[in-house]
Structures are given as structure tokens and as C-alpha cells.
Amino acid sequence: MATQEGKDPGIVTTVRLNQNRPLPLRLLQFCLIFLVLGLGISIVSVNMIRFFGVHTVGPAARSNIIFPCFEESDSIEKWIRPPSNLMHKMNDIELFWRASFVPRINQYPIKRVPKIAFMFLTKGPLPLAPLWERFFKGHEGLYSIYVHSLPSYVADLTQFSVFYKRQIPSQVAEWGMMSMCDAERRLLANALLDISNEWFILLSESCIPLHNFGIIYRYISKSRYSFMGVFDDPGLYGRGRYNWNMQPEVTLEQWRKGSQWFEVDRKLAVSVIEDSTYYPKFKDFCQPGCYVDEHYFPTMLSIQFPHLLANRSVTWTDWSRGGAHPATFGNSDITDEFFKRMFEGQSCLYNNQPDNVCFLFARKFAPSALEPLLDLSPKVLGF
Predict the structure, then answer these.
(1) What number of other Cβ atoms are within 10 A of residue 143's Cβ?
(2) How far is CA 374 from CA 140, 269, 333, 334, in A?
(3) Alpha helices of the chain — where are they, by DSSP H?
(4) What is the enclosing helix (H) or strand (E) of 237?
(5) Is residue 253 situated within a structural domain?
(6) Which of 255, 268, 273, 93 is nearest to 181 (CA)?
């Protein structure tokens, strides 16, 4: 406070002296800061709209949509990269539709290393997994693994296992029923999502490889044909299972039988999962007692692509003991002599030439066979 004496000596006027900056200058600074801040926000908003795009949805849908923080830019990578998580939420219709996408140009614009998809159809655990771990070791990038088990089964595996997180969304598959073929189609469809998978092998939890990875990869990749067991059985368990309601799509002369365990290339795999001609006939008219998994694929593929099939399986099975199921081998069966008998006397055609390597896999091996298999595999199986 300061006092100032007026002209009238009897009057004293009191005033407040402003020692800060003048008010107009402070107001100008505030407006300038606000203008710069607003301009910055506008620039950021425009760039975000250009990058993310503008989505217009109805009020009811807005509450159900989660917008990601970022979206992968359009590039060839997102089309060729295999799914990082096999446990997707697609149903079979959606899955088969997505898996049926086929490039119309055969020359890939990328460096593509063809892989073998090993598809395991199981009920639960893989008791022979340690043998398969040894088989796959050192060949990363040349194979993929897919496991279809009972939906209730939860695998207890470490992240170091080749089977870690390789289970696909599964459903119950019953022996001899169409649900078994559905499971096999489901395996093929999931494997087709990886564009690098070129060959697809169906295996069970009781299967073992009979050669090392290098031999099997060369055998499959150099073959002109896919390995599907296909033959015409005139007896009760072949043509005797035919239902005349399958005409005209499938005639008695076209009816075929074969092993459930197959190997097909990408072209045939796509034809299997996109089939809507033969599938309904087999589902409706190959009922219990027909054993649809022994007839559907052999018949359908032999009608459509007879020139692409080797008409034999590459999975060895022993039916010599009789009965509805093949022989199972346990601990006491696994000897040098056992494999010697298996390998000797093999004779088949490979690329239309005689060959003595006919089987790449074998079944059925019980869990008790694991230890002797691990002991003999370096000497007998080559890994």
C-alpha cells in the first residue's frame, strides 16, 4: 500500500500499485499456449484416423465391440504367418471355409520351405512322445504338429516339448462313426491354415516312425503320389457295406475301402475339407456297421483324383492275429528280430518303380513299448 497526496491537502487517496506484468501480456501468453495445444491434438487425431480408420456401428453393437489398440498393417506377412494360437474360436463351418483358401498363382512371392504336417488323432496323452521328440529334434522348420484329442483332455507339457500348445479345438470322435472323419477333416483344416504345410500325415498315439526324419521327408517330398490305401473288396466287409441310396454320387463299382491312416498333399487336403458332394451321402447312409472312416476318403478321392493316389498306405499294421483290431505290441515284443521281420520282404512301387522301402510308420504300440523303443531306435530306426 502506498499513499498519494492529492491537490487538496485534506484528502489522502490510497491506491494499490501493480508490481506484476501487465494483464494484456498474460492473456496473450495463455491464448498462444491453448492454440499450440489444440493444433497438436488435431494433428495427432488426423493421423490416428488415417491409421486406424473410422468404424461406424449401431448403438446396440457398440457395447459388444472391442477396438484394438493397434491393427497390423496390410502386408504379405499376415497372409503367410502361421497362427500363433491353435485354440481359435471358429466352428467347423467357419474353419473349413477359411482353410479352403487356395492361391491361384502357384509361384509364391516369398521363400517358402515346404513342411510336413504331422496330425495326431488321439483320445488323450501321447505315451510315445519321448520317441517322437527324439525323431523331430534338429529339424525345426520342416514340420508342424497338430493334436486332436478328447475335448476334456488338458495336456500337461512343458514349453520345451514339440507338442506344447499343439492341441486344436476338438470334439468327440467315435470309432466307425462320421465323427471320426470329422476329426480328421478338422485336423486337415487346421493344418491348412499354415501355408507352408505341403504334406499331411494322419497318425495315432500308438504310431511310431520307422526311419529318421531325413529319410521320411525325402520319401514324402519326392513322391509323385499321395499315400491313401484304396482297394475294391468284393466281400462282406467291402462291397457288402455299400448302401444303394448313395447313388448316383457313388456307385457300387466306385465303392472303395482303405486304411484310415493316410498321407495326402495340399491339393487333396483342400478337396477333402471342401467336399459337399460325397460327405452327405456317407453321413446318411454309411451308418454303424459300415465303418465310414474306412470308406469315405478312399472312395471320394479315388473318384475325383485316381491318378494322384499310390493306392497304398505308408503305415504298417499287423492284421495277422485276426479280429476287428490289429495286433498291439508291448515291451516284450520290441526286439531286433521284431524289426527285422518287419523290414524284410517289403516290396512296393514308389514313383512307378519297384522299391523295398514301403512303410514309414507303424502301429499299434502300447505305452510299455516306449523304453525298449528308445533303447533300439539309434540302431534300428536311425535316430
Answers:
(1) 19
(2) 21, 33, 14, 10
(3) 23-52, 59-62, 77-80, 92-99, 129-136, 178-192, 213-221, 266-273, 279-285, 296-304, 336-343, 370-376
(4) none
(5) yes
(6) 273
Under 8 Å CB-to-CB from 85, ≥6 apart: which residues?
A: 165
CATH at residue 301: 3.90.550
**Average of per-residue pLDDT across 271-277:** 97
The strand pair at 2-5 and 12-15 is best described as antiparallel
pLDDT over 70, % of the chain: 82
* pTM of the predicted model as reported, rounded to 2 decimal places: 0.80
Residue closest to 222 by CA, chosen among 357, 379, 105, 316: 357
Asked, for residue 158, whether it belongs to a domain, the answer is yes
Is the residue at 369 inside a domain? no
Q: How many domains would you assign to the chain?
A: 1
Cβ neighbours for 187, distance < 8 A, ≥ 6 positions apart: 119, 121, 146, 148, 168, 200, 202
Does residue 379 lie in a domain region? no
Choice among 37-41, 234-238, 273-277, 306-310 with the minimum mean pLDDT: 37-41
128: domain range?
113-313
DSSP symbols for 124-161: S--TTHHHHHHHHTT-TTSEEEEEE--TT------TTS
Residue whose C-alpha cell reads 520290441 in the numeric block: 334
pLDDT at 136 over 80: yes
pLDDT of residue 75: 76
Q: What share of the chain is helix, strand, coil (3-state, %, to 5)?
A: 35, 15, 50
User: Per-residue pLDDT for 7 more than 50?
Assistant: no
pLDDT over 80 (residue 202): yes
Helix, strand or coil, per DSSP, at residue 12? strand
Place of cell 457300387: 252
